[in-house]
Structures are given as C-alpha cells and as structure tokens.
Amino acid sequence: MDLLHLFKLQKELDERILREHGLEPKKLLKEKMLALLVEVGELANETRCFKYWSNKPSSERSVVLEEYVDGLHFILSIGIDLGVDKNFLFYKCAETDTTTVQVFLDAYSKIIRFQEQPSITNYIELFTSYLRLGQTLEFSQDEIEQAYLAKNEVNHERQTQGY
Ligand SMILES: O=c1ccn([C@H]2C[C@H](O)[C@@H](COP(=O)(O)OP(=O)(O)OP(=O)(O)O)O2)c(=O)[nH]1
User: Fold this and answer.
1) Which of 20, 43, 46, 74 to mutate to test the pocket of ligand 1 (most atoms within 8 A of CB)?
2) What pTM value is reported for the model?
3) Which residue's alpha carbon is at the smallest distance from atom 14 of ligand 1?
4) pLDDT tens column, 116-159
5) Which of 123, 125, 78 has its CA nearest to residue 106?
6) DSSP 3-state assignment of 50?
7) Hey, what long-range contacts does 30-35 have (CB within 8 A, 24 or more apart)?
8) Ligand 1 test: best mutation among 13, 69, 76, most atoms within 8 Å of CB?
C-alpha cells in the first residue's frame, strides 16, 4: 500500500472539502475523532461480529470494505493535521491470534488514547491497530488501497454535486 500517495490524495480531498464548505483551514481534530469513532461503529455493525444474539450474516464484503476505508480516510486526515503525512512509512503489523471483537475494542482504545494525547507515537499505535483490524477482516493491502481510491473519487463527486 502506497501510504504516501494516499496521504497526498487525502490532502487534496480535505482541502477541497474545506473550500467547498467555506471553512477556514483550521484543524477539525475533535470532529474527525468523533467521525472516526462513528465509522468504526458502523464497520462493527456491518460485520455483526458482536451480535451473539443473531444468526444474520455479516454484510457483503464490499460493504464492509467501504466502511473500513471511510475510517481510513479520517485516519489519514488526522495524520495530515498532525504533520506526519510526508514521512510516514507503513510497516506490516504482526499477525495476532485474537477475536475480531477484541481487535475492534483495541482500535477503540487506541483512538481514545490518541484523542487524549495526540502524539505521533499514539498516532502510530492507532494506525497500526486499524491496519490490524483490516487484516483480521481479511482484507489485503491491495484491496484496501483500491477501495480507498474508489471511495476517494466518490467523495470528490459528492463535493461536485454540493453534498
Ligand atoms: O475532511 C474530511 C471529511 C470527510 N471525509 C470523507 C471520509 C469518508 O470517506 C466520507 C464520510 O463518510 P460517509 O461517506 O459515511 O459520509 P456520510 O455523510 O455519513 O454518508 P452516508 O450517510 O452515506 O453514510 O468523507 C474526508 O475524507 N475528509
């Protein structure tokens, strides 16, 4: 996954959203943190991994993947505000032998920790936990990258249409 390229596309999209909505290029960190928490909740809902009371299966893989890359958009956007977008290198996170529910809870706790203390170390921890979540959901890096590019385009189209 070419993260530096994704950061660049994210920056273009974020700048466009600010422009179209007449917002100052001020940081919207709190709003982005809440948006990310909501996206992780939407993702968990689509997987249904915690719904021990139901036999209904997970949503289609493509639906889950789109939710996943919505969260990735906000994580990249937060990284840009933090100033790490020019030199952030992806390193493969170790495979973990744990449940999907636990991986979701870990991602939540890393997001909250970063929100309380927005350091680069905590950002890397957050990013890593989100990549681990992608691995747990069995998405390849290539699939994630392609889905990110597709949703990024949709986000631009929405701005064109005055979303
Ligand atoms: O500064 C921003 C703000 C938003 N987004 C992207 C992230 C995500 O891909 C999308 C917002 O999520 P979604 O598509 O779920 O938006 P929604 O307005 O909640 O749509 P829906 O009601 O269809 O879920 O916009 C950014 O990249 N940068």
Assistant:
1) 74
2) 0.95
3) 70
4) 999 999 999 999 999 999 999 999 999 999 999 999 999 999 99
5) 125
6) coil
7) 32/74, 32/77, 32/78, 32/81, 33/78, 33/111, 33/114, 33/115, 35/74
8) 13
User: pLDDT averaged over the chain?
Assistant: 94
- What tokens does 157 get? 């189209």
* Termini Cα distance of the chain: 29
Please tell me the residue having the least CA distance from ligand 1 atom 9: 70
Tokens matching residue 144: 């994630």
Whole-angstrom Cα Rg for the chain: 16
**ipTM, interface predicted TM-score of the complex:** 0.96
| pLDDT tens-digit map of 83-125 | 998 877 766 666 677 899 999 999 999 999 999 999 999 999 9
Q: Which two tokens stand for residue 103?
A: 């991986």
> By CB neighbour count within 10 A (0-12 exposed, 13-18 middle, 19+ buried), where does 105 fall?
middle
Contact 47, 59 (CB under 8 A): yes
**How far is it, in rounded angstroms, from Cα 162 to Cα 160?**
5
Class of domain 3-160: mainly alpha
